[in-house]
Write a structure and sequence with these properties.
three-stranded antiparallel β-sheet; five-stranded parallel β-sheet; 8 helices; about 15% strand; binds adenosine monophosphate; globular; Rossmann fold
């Protein structure tokens, strides 16, 4: 059965990493609005120029622009057999728009919960490979890891919006704009909550179990 999954949670909860694994397991694309917007900024497209500052400050890009981007992406061939959405929806308006786009198709929703202070610590330590996009923690083991990607040897860099000040602003935005999205979904029978403060492998197992339990109920 097609997997249509939303992974919700604050910045640093591990959404991207977990969404990628689940998507690979099910042979469906991971669709990350953050990645799509960063690509737009890097390519210098008209959208990229428009949203550069907004992203640098950790604020949300307009609902209209995001919904248009997601609408287009969900029409791609690879998304017809399912998808895992990461970083979308971030507002109730976006959640409503997504319901419209899906026209009643079943949607599983998983919220990853992590305490705020742990999020700040994780995001400050987060490094991304410039070349292959792998995410690693600068706090994990070998200090050499903080400079070089284990997967491809590329340079590890910090996202400009992962500085402590911007992270705190992003968390404020999360609690104000995105927490209500949890309220939008939490009464649905396909909603599950998992503890994101444990080891990534255990978070993954909890999400896989949540997805299986949602599928079993359908
Ligand atoms: P992320 O990689 O998901 O943490 O997203 C990075 C940044 O992209 C956010 O801080 C926002 O500026 C922007 N962004 C990503 N997804 C959305 C969305 N669904 N709605 C509005 N802005 C978004």
């Amino acid at each position: 059965m097609a997997l249509r999954l939303l992974v919700l949670g604050p910045p640093g909860a591990g959404k991207g990493t977990q969404a990628l694994r689940i998507a690979r397991d099910h042979g469906v694309p991971k669709i990350s609005t953050g990645d799509m917007l960063r690509d737009a900024v890097t390519s210098g497209s008209p959208l990229g120029v428009l949203i550069r500052e907004t992203m640098a400050q950790g604020q949300l890009v307009s609902d209209d622009a995001i919904v248009a981007l997601v609408r287009e992406r969900l029409h791609d061939d690879d998304a017809q057999k399912g998808f895992v959405l990461d970083g979308f929806p971030r507002t109730v308006a976006q959640a409503n728009a997504l319901d419209g786009l899906l026209k009643g198709s079943a949607l599983a929703v998983v919220e990853i919960q992590v305490p705020d202070e742990e999020l700040v610590r994780r995001v400050r330590g987060r490094r991304i490979c410039e070349r292959c996009g792998t995410t690693v923690s600068a706090f994990d083991g070998d200090p050499a890891l903080a400079q070089e990607c284990k997967t491809c040897g590329g340079r590890l860099v910090q996202r400009s919006d992962d500085s402590e000040t911007v992270v705190r602003d992003r968390l404020k935005v999360y609690w104000r704009e995105t927490q209500p999205v949890i309220g939008f979904y939490e009464d649905r029978p396909t909603f599950r909550r998992v503890d994101g403060s444990v080891a990534p492998v255990d978070v993954y197992a909890a999400i896989a179990a949540a997805v299986a339990s949602v599928s079993a109920e359908r």
